[in-house]
Amino acid sequence: MLRVGFVGLGRMGRGMARRILRGGHDLIVYNRTANNAADLASEGASVAPSIAAACADRDVVITMLADDAALDEVALGAGGVRDSLTTDAIHLVMGTHGVAAMHAIEAAHRRARQTLVAAPVLGRPDKAAVGELGIIAAGPEAAVHRCRPLFAVMGGRTFDAGASPAAAAATKLANNFAIGCALEAMSEAFSFVRKFDVPPQILYEVMTEGLLAAPVYRVYGKIIVDDRYDQAGFTVQLALKDAELMAAAADSVHVPLPSGALLRDRLRDAITQGNGEKDWAILARVQARLSGLDEED
Ligand SMILES: NC(=O)c1ccc[n+]([C@@H]2O[C@H](COP(=O)([O-])OP(=O)(O)OC[C@H]3O[C@@H](n4cnc5c(N)ncnc54)[C@H](OP(=O)(O)O)[C@@H]3O)[C@@H](O)[C@H]2O)c1
Fold first, then answer.
1. CA-CA to 236 of 20 to 30 Å: which in 150, 216, 268, 281?
2. pLDDT tens digits for 146-179?
3. Domain endpoint, select from 147, 162, 177
4. Would you call 172 a catalytic residue per the annotation?
């Protein structure tokens, strides 16, 4: 049994924290908006009044936060994780963050004689709720090993990305980038067939019963066919954050990303249309509008 602190009970964090609680670990949670911790409290988790209280006496403190700015504030701000973790404790970062942020936070923890492990996750909130996330873990071997009982209750499979937390961040960003490109290609394909009066359901079946029989096409293709973007699993806003982190990291190592530029433009277009909080599959509507279909977003 590990003593775990959990900071960030958003769409993903809520399900992940619940899995840790049900896995028999000693859990204390903190969320900036306190109301979002009520469900877990009623199920037996302790609720901390501050980040410092969520870190006191913990073996591992998990953060599952929206973006680098939130992580910077929570980890490195006064009274944050770095100031509050005991020596030798682990900060387990499970949100999707940039490579540069991982380097900065790793160095800050090292100076405080604490350890950073990065373990960004694969899968949407439904997978988080049932403990079937994919987990990309990187950090010092002993620390990653110490986190494995937590990975076991949150995820189905752990991918070991090496000793540098930045490597896990890069792997996660690359995967999201490839999903985004698949989504954009699907969006273009759906607009195209509609011009020939092909019902979207038919293209969906052709793709998912053929060579594209993969979850990315099944999950996002279904959302596009149903034209249902309000129940966001992953928002346009977060997708743009990842696309921009990928661009910055690629720039730093001189890797051209022509598809990335297009993906970012399309995500920005969706935000301009007021759809930043919708599911990022709404790229299909951006493409439909640009194709002269569905004038209204
Ligand atoms: N959703 C997905 O399908 C998915 C899949 C894989 C990975 N991810 C990644 O996982 C992370 C979390 O995603 P999510 O969908 O759970 O996001 P979310 O629902 O927007 O939750 C974000 C969490 O961050 C907290 N937060 C934001 N800014 C903060 C700040 N300045 N200080 C303290 N707390 C702050 C929020 O607290 P409040 O409640 O107070 O706002 C909330 O707990 C992101 O990095 C995302 O890219 C998401």
1. 150
2. 999 999 999 999 999 999 999 999 999 999 999 9
3. 162
4. yes
